[in-house]
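User: I've been going back and forth on whether these two constructs are worth ordering. Before I decide, could you fold them both?

Assistant: Sure. I'll take them in the order you sent them. The first construct and its structure tokens:
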Amino acid sequence: MKSVRKKALIAIIIEFFVFSFVGFSLVLMLFHAGILAFPVIAFMWTFWGFNVLTFFIGTEIKFRYKISFAVLNLLLVSLLIAFLINSAESTRNNTVQIVSIAVSIVVALLYLLVSILFVKHYWNPAKNEVLRLLGKNSPEPTAGQAACGLTHCYTDTRTGVLIENMKVYNYKSVKSIEKEGIIFSDGLKIIFQDCINGFKKNYNSFTNVSTCIAERNILVQPPYFQFYLDDMNVKIIFDCKGLFAKKRSIKLFQYFQLKIKSLGYKTFDLT
């Protein structure tokens, strides 16, 4: 987080002087028509504003949000200037006015959509950082988690028992699925044969589990696959963000299930 803030602070300082110089130069070059430089100025300073936001929340903001808001700001200011110039003319061009209003509505709708996606993605990091800066304490751990004392404590959804060494991965952390097992982005590899042995231990009353490597649950939020190993358990969750997140999570879950099935293994359905 410190490195993110440091990069943001450097960008804030550099962009402040560069954008000020470029903006002032454009206005001087255009002179009486200096107002025409405002869309470009709005476009540039949007990036500066996002760097200021990054500095305060300590979270890197994705470029797609920066460029989306920058382009929308450019369009919005351009439309405003076109509307003002047309209104100032002695004979107004109704076509220009109608087009400006129509495009403004489209831009406003795009603004709303991008803003919703942005807030949904960054609300929690921003809120947590604000609470931290205000000196608010984070929620107290449960009694079981406090007793466990590990970062990978997790409650088993089947038994309700606190597991002391559960490693939880987002589906994006799956680097590859091979015949022998699954490789994650942090280098961990789980072997399917070990998963079969672990599953048998946890479901010792079940028969015909010779190729069953995990349990799965598509009805909970987020859907997941859980693998039982000797030294720890591994859970892969499917928690897409943004528009149609639930639908995309289910599709990825089903694709993952079919991939495992194509390798000749089964998963136990908890639903």
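The second construct, handled the same way:
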Amino acid sequence: MLDGWIEPGERLECDIAVPAHDLKDPKEVVHLRCRVQAVRVERRPGGGEFGLACRIEDYCVIRGWGEAWQLPRDSKTTFTAGTAAP
């Protein structure tokens, strides 16, 4: 989800949490830092949020969540865990 409108075709950087399927810790996730291109943006009913469909163009695995925030961010818009941030 995004708090504001973006145009389809815009490129963004985002973090995605993916289940790690670790039998020792079923709640464990792997974080991916992705460069994506917006394919579709739709206003959600009853609010100021927007749904977003993206195509992943490139990604890297983030080993620790703290490391993710230390990587350089060079895109105009970044969203993490479904929240937009300018």
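Notes on the second construct follow. Residues 67-86 have pLDDT under 50 and may be disordered. Residues 26 and 40 are 32 Å apart (CA to CA).
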